[in-house]
Design goal:
This protein has about 130 residues and is of the alpha/beta class. Helices cover about 45% and strands about 15% of the residues. α4 links the parallel β4 (about 85) and β5. The longest helix is centred in the middle third of the chain and has 15 residues, at about 65-80. Residues about 120-125 have low confidence and may be disordered.
């Protein structure tokens, strides 16, 4: 299963970055056969947190909305995701529009519950 996490610009030092880092590095997610790709529509000011999983990251590195939409369109068509997790209202809108335009068959979620459940369940069982 392939899942995309779509975010707006990130500082590189906040809570979203910490959660995303734990999800992408989770052994339980990898063992379940889930491949996670991070799509950042904008910038990340401190890129050190991305160093361990650069091959799983798409970064636009600009604030141009049309450019970001076209960037996301190309990735969503190419990667064939089963689920798209959106962390901003704009990425929810873009994902829905792209799904309608391209007739891709991915589920749009906006709560990160799918990926975080796996990480949380692992911690509860190992405690």
């Amino acid at each position: 299963m392939k899942i995309a996490i779509i975010t707006p610009t990130l500082s590189g030092k906040g809570g979203e970055e910490t959660v995303i880092d734990k999800i992408i590095k989770s052994k339980k997610i990898r063992l379940a056969g889930i491949e996670i790709k991070l799509i950042i529509l904008g910038k990340t000011y401190d890129q050190k947190w991305l160093k361990d999983f650069k091959e799983s990251v798409y970064l636009t590195n600009n604030e141009n909305e049309i450019g970001n939409f076209l960037f996301l369109l190309r990735i969503l068509k190419k990667e064939n995701f089963q689920s798209v997790i959106c962390l901003s209202r704009k990425s929810i809108l873009y994902s829905y529009l792209i799904r309608k335009l391209t007739m891709c068959n991915y589920m749009v979620d906006y709560r990160m519950k799918l990926a975080t459940q796996l990480v949380v369940n692992k911690k509860r069982h190992s405690a």
